[in-house]
Write a structure and sequence with these properties.
Layout: H1 2-6, H2 13-21, H3 23-31, E1 53-56, E2 59-65, E3 76-82, E4 85-89, H4 97-103, E5 108-112, H5 123-129, H6 132-142, E6 146-150, H7 159-170, E7 176-179, H8 194-200, E8 204-205
Parallel strand pairs: 4-5, 5-6, 6-7
Antiparallel strand pairs: 1-2, 2-3, 3-4, 7-8
Helix pairs in contact: 2-3, 4-6, 6-7
Length: 208
């Protein structure tokens, strides 16, 4: 994708050539302290794959498989472990053993909830995206403390259906369930208390 954007005959190639070769652009470049010839962008890309581990300052990111649109794209999920706790983000994914292992014991799993169970357009869609009962089983198997539902469709993002989904997930999963909303803030680890969740999540379901 980087090559298709910035390479020869890439999407931005005409713009890059203009900025490197047109005299007005060279004048601006020189006026800003540059010394011609103006170099083009040379992105340095490190591709990551399932099994990779990236370490930062007091945090570790682990890359795992997600089940979505293979073999057309390689789909990944990410887990971050830090001093304050652990978070797993599945991206777009249906249920899969690899995701269960990646999320095992996490404080928070953020997972797509695209369709109401039994109303998926096809078996292939369910395999690629799952449903709310699949998500309950995944969270239970992984032993995560909190499940955050996201990537919600208009079909289910309604008060009546939302409450049914939360209730039915709790039939199989005894952790905290949160209906994800834009700009929501969710404490992680030791800060993940019932009172904090109530402040940040008006549409949540507690096992209490």
């Amino acid at each position: 994708m980087t090559g298709q954007l910035f390479g020869i005959d890439g999407v931005y190639d005409p713009d890059i050539r203009a900025r490197r070769q047109h005299q007005s652009s060279i004048d601006v470049f020189r006026g800003r302290g540059g010394t011609p010839p103006r170099k083009g962008p040379e992105p340095v890309v490190r591709e990551i794959r399932a099994g990779d581990v990236v370490k930062g300052d007091r945090w570790t990111l682990t890359v795992g498989h997600a089940a979505h649109v293979q073999p057309y794209l390689e789909c990944l999920a990410f887990r971050i472990d830090g001093d304050g706790g652990s978070l797993c983000y599945s991206g777009d994914s249906g249920p899969c053993d690899a995701l269960v292992e990646l999320a095992r014991g996490c404080d928070v799993l953020i997972h797509m909830n695209h369709y109401f169970s039994g109303r998926e357009p096809s078996p292939s869609f369910r395999a690629a995206c799952g449903n709310h009962r699949d998500n309950a089983a995944l969270a239970r198997r992984a032993g995560v403390k909190t499940l955050v539902l996201t990537h919600l469709t208009s079909e289910i993002d309604r008060p009546d259906v939302r409450e049914q989904i939360l209730r039915e997930i709790r039939e199989d999963y005894d952790g905290q369930v949160i209906w994800g909303q834009d700009l929501m803030e969710i404490p992680i680890g030791s800060n993940l208390t019932a009172s904090a969740l109530r402040r940040h999540s008006p549409a949540s379901s507690s096992p209490e």
